[in-house]
Amino acid sequence: MEKNETELLSIVVSAYNAEKYIQEMVDSLIRQTYSNKEIILVDDGSKDGTPQICDEYASNYDFIHVIHKKNEGVYSARNTGLEGSKGAYIAFVDADDYIDCQAYETMMNAIIMENGDVVSCGYKNEYSVDRIIEKKLIRSPEIYVYTGANNILSGIGNQEHDLCGFVWNKIFRRTTIGNVRFSANAPICDDMVFVYDVLSMARKAVYVDQDFYHYRYVGSSLSKSGSIDRFMRCLSAMEDLAAWSRKEAPWCQESLAKTIIFWNVKTCEQMLKRFDQRAFRTIQKNIGTYKKYIPQCTIRIRMLSKAILKSWYVYKPLGLFIWYMKKAYVTYKRLYT
């Protein structure tokens, strides 16, 4: 595609202590067949070799820029990268993932052709910590279009062509983002709140039916995801989002309710290492509020949420069993896939 300032794509990479994986992500961005791009590497106060790796890339490629900042979390890193970018289109990726080389060319063609406000692609969970297999696009993928706020927001959680509540599998038109920024009040699920905020103002969203983005499942440790307080702040932000949807977008209640149930169960999992009675009671209340949506959740979430509603003593053995099964599954996938 010919160089055009109105079609510049800014790719924001948020990185914290990512020296083990960031080179693979940045290399996958450099290899993108879409050439009209800039890469913004945001070093969020890393303590390892990430700052040096970022600086080396910037010294070798004129379209790569680095921003070093104090550690404030991924929401702040993404906001910083957004403010420091110049593109008419914005993409956000995480430093420990990677993306197929034809992803952004295909997605940019789709969003420009359809005059869309956002384009989303599929993604694949990757369990290997060493082996990178980049898929080349053999044929043009199917394109699906959502128009109008009700259809677009209903497309989040759509089982067939899911727009998803993540930012890392999307390209946003800058004018659609406007003044929306990632929230400090949702330190874990900041991207979901951001996606709902932006998509509620979008006229048209496009879905590219291809698993371009590779989400690396780094681990299954109970201690890796942060404190209960951070998770509870996330749940509070989701309740604010639910209150907004009940008033402004009732058509997306089911998909949002299933997401809220999932995050309450995820938060409860963190208590397997340290029980917090007050937090558990809040989670019971939250799940109780949305219990009519439990049958629409996956079997794992159905089982765990029903156990939570009974008591901690019913949930704990089941939660530990499923956590160990999940850990065994991740180990198996790493060894044999």
Provide tags for this entry.
12 helices, 9-stranded mixed sheet, Spore Coat Polysaccharide Biosynthesis Protein SpsA, Chain A, 9 strands, alpha/beta, 337 residues
Count of helical segments? 12
In whole angstroms, the N-to-C terminal distance is 36 Å
In the CATH hierarchy, what is the architecture of the largest domain at level 2?
A: Alpha-Beta Complex
Uncertain parts: 220-224
- Quick one: CATH class of the largest domain? Alpha Beta
Q: Tell me the fraction of residues in β-strands, as a range.
A: 15-25%
- Give the helix level as a range of percent: 40-55%
Task: Note down, in words, how this protein is organized.
This protein is α/β, with parallel strands linked by helices. The two termini are 36 Å apart. Strands 1, 2, 3, 4, 5, 6, 7, 8 and 9 form a nine-stranded mixed β-sheet that branches. It folds into two domains: 212 residues, Spore Coat Polysaccharide Biosynthesis Protein SpsA, Chain A, CATH 3.90.550; 109 residues, no CATH class. Helices cover 45% and strands 18% of the residues. Strand 1, helix 1 and strand 2 form a beta-alpha-beta unit. The chain is globular. Helix 9 packs across helix 11.
